[in-house]
């Protein structure tokens, strides 16, 4: 599972809280600052467990960061691959502004894997 975006949001907040400066440079952000303890699966399909509390905390930080832009973040787990999908949604129009990784790409990968017999329907 790729949670680098969420980790970066946590680190941006940590860097901001430590400096008190609104202009935190991306160079100061370290993914090693994020600690994962008490790991539990979010989804049975998930191969890389992540702490649900840590994920919720990261989403809260990310949403606070996005407030001035009138957007918010949502996450979901791809049903076939178990990959986390992060969406940035416009609050007013409810339109998806950004999706990483794109669900269409994950659907295409799952379809190719299914055709080659590499993806079980149980997964």
TrEMBL record:
<protein>
    <submittedName>
        <fullName>Flagellar protein FlaG</fullName>
    </submittedName>
</protein>
<dbReference type="InterPro" id="IPR005186">
    <property type="entry name" value="FlaG"/>
</dbReference>
<feature type="compositionally biased region" description="Basic and acidic residues">
    <location>
        <begin position="30"/>
        <end position="49"/>
    </location>
</feature>
<keyword id="KW-0969">Cilium</keyword>
<dbReference type="InterPro" id="IPR035924">
    <property type="entry name" value="FlaG-like_sf"/>
</dbReference>
<keyword id="KW-0282">Flagellum</keyword>
<keyword id="KW-0966">Cell projection</keyword>
<feature type="region of interest" description="Disordered">
    <location>
        <begin position="20"/>
        <end position="49"/>
    </location>
</feature>
<dbReference type="Pfam" id="PF03646">
    <property type="entry name" value="FlaG"/>
</dbReference>
């Amino acid at each position: 599972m790729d949670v680098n975006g969420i980790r970066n949001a946590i680190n941006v907040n940590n860097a901001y809280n430590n400096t008190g400066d609104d202009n935190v440079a991306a160079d100061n952000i370290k993914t090693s600052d994020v600690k994962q303890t008490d790991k539990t699966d979010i989804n049975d399909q998930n191969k890389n467990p992540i702490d649900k509390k840590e994920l919720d905390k990261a989403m809260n930080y990310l949403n606070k960061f996005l407030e001035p832009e009138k957007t918010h973040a949502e996450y979901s787990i791809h049903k076939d691959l178990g990959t986390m999908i992060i969406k940035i949604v416009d609050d007013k129009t409810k339109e998806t502004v950004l999706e990483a990784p794109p669900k269409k790409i994950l659907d295409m990968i799952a379809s190719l894997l299914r055709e080659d017999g590499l993806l079980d329907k149980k997964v």
